[in-house]
Every structure is written in C-alpha cells, then in structure tokens.
C-alpha cells in the first residue's frame, strides 16, 4: 500500500480531525455526537494510535471500515505490524504501552488487525478551500511536505514521522512548507498546541483529558469538554 494518500476536499459536509484514540471509541463517539457529526456527509481524520491502553481496541476494525473515517498509521499500529511480521519489538515495553490485548490473541486473530494496519498511509493529505492539510502521527522529519511524502519508504524517515517528539521538545516553530497545516498527535498536550503550522492534537482523550476535534475548514477546535 502507498505510504502517502491524498483525499479531495469535502464539498458536502465537515471535515474534523482528532488526536490519539487508544481504544476509547465510545468516548470518541460521544464527542462526535456532542458536535452533531453527520456520517452521511462529514469525515473524521485520525492522526493514528487507534489501539492499546483503552478497553475497546478490537473495535478498530469496525472503525476502519467506516467510509467516513480516515487514519494514518501510528507507532502503536506499527508495533502490531512488526510483532506479527517478526520485527524487533520489546514485548515488555509493548505490553506496558497497552499492547496486551493484541499480544494475548492467537496469531490467526492478530492477522486481521495487521492486515488493516498495513493498509494505513504514514502520511495523508486532505484538500481544503484554504489549502492542503497534512497528517502524520508524530513529527515532521523535514520542513518541506513534498520532500516528506517522497521519502516515506526510508525507514529512518518513517521513524521520525511515527515516533519523534523533537518539535515539541525544542519548541520548534519552523513551518512545514507546502501545507496550510500539519496535524500530529503522539505526545499528549494539555490543550491543542500549534508550533509554526503544526497542530498537536493529542489532548489525552484516551487518558484523563478530552478529545479535541479540529474543524479543518476553519482550523478551530470545536469539541466541548465532556459534560461542558
Ligand atoms: Mn504514538
């Protein structure tokens, strides 16, 4: 499967994006309901890390089958792929990071998840009226989107896209050229944080925080806090 995918603009409804989900699909659905998400015309974009930690990881297959749900591959999806494909995965670390539900499945039950995860792009581009918006799980390896999307077969580039926390650590505000905005997750933040044109969306909806839904057309966070 191609590691880079482009999607045309949504001319019928809203496009929303969300940070790491980590097996909390019921909470996510409640959040979508609260903002009147309409699956007939709206689309939801995910920065990956769909599974591990939360109680509903197995539901990921139903979510990935929804025509309005589009995700990039996070490092947790990569862990599952590498585990089944015989790659080097530290099992204690993986289990501590919430992978027990997957590790405890027999290999034939792991396979459908890995089949779905390998189909996910590492980088996704969504057109909007104001310009293209990119999605990666963790961080941008370069400050030029075209260069990133051409280099995704390089394991070192994928590693940065899916695992790095450099931009947040350094407070790097360099914009990623060629994009209106780049959306990432992976590193929890208390509130949506923008550095340059890079939006960090993982506000801990899977933990003690809330899911933040970003409206792609207006680049505004529209989700209320749960109960608010
Ligand atoms: Mn992650």
From TrEMBL:
<feature type="domain" description="Calcineurin-like phosphoesterase">
    <location>
        <begin position="16"/>
        <end position="178"/>
    </location>
</feature>
<protein>
    <submittedName>
        <fullName>Metallophosphoesterase</fullName>
    </submittedName>
</protein>
<dbReference type="GO" id="GO:0005737">
    <property type="term" value="C:cytoplasm"/>
</dbReference>
<dbReference type="Pfam" id="PF00149">
    <property type="entry name" value="Metallophos"/>
</dbReference>
<dbReference type="InterPro" id="IPR029052">
    <property type="entry name" value="Metallo-depent_PP-like"/>
</dbReference>
<dbReference type="InterPro" id="IPR050126">
    <property type="entry name" value="Ap4A_hydrolase"/>
</dbReference>
<dbReference type="InterPro" id="IPR004843">
    <property type="entry name" value="Calcineurin-like_PHP"/>
</dbReference>
<dbReference type="GO" id="GO:0110154">
    <property type="term" value="P:RNA decapping"/>
</dbReference>
<dbReference type="GO" id="GO:0016791">
    <property type="term" value="F:phosphatase activity"/>
</dbReference>
<dbReference type="GO" id="GO:0008803">
    <property type="term" value="F:bis(5'-nucleosyl)-tetraphosphatase (symmetrical) activity"/>
</dbReference>
């Amino acid at each position: 499967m191609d590691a880079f995918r482009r999607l045309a603009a949504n001319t019928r409804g809203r496009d929303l994006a969300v940070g790491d989900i980590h097996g909390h699909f019921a909470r996510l659905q409640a959040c979508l309901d609260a903002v009147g998400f309409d699956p007939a015309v709206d689309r939801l974009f995910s920065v990956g890390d769909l599974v591990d930690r939360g109680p509903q990881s197995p539901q990921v297959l139903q979510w990935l089958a929804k025509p309005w749900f589009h995700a990039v591959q996070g490092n947790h999806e990569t862990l599952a792929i590498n585990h089944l494909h015989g790659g080097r995965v530290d099992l204690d670390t993986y289990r501590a990071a919430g992978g027990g539900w997957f590790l405890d499945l027999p290999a034939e039950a792991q396979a459908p998840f890995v089949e779905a995860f390998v189909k996910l792009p590492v980088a996704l581009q969504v057109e909007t009226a104001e310009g293209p918006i990119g999605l990666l799980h963790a961080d941008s390896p370069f400050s030029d989107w075209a260069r990133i999307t051409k280099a995704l077969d390089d394991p070192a580039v994928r590693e940065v896209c899916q695992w790095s926390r450099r931009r947040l650590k350094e407070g790097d505000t360099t914009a990623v050229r060629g994009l209106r905005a780049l959306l990432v997750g992976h590193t929890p933040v208390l509130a949506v944080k923008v550095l340059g044109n890079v939006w960090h969306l993982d506000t801990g909806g899977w933990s003690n925080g809330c899911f933040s839904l970003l409206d792609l057309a207006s680049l505004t966070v529209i989700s209320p806090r749960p109960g608010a």
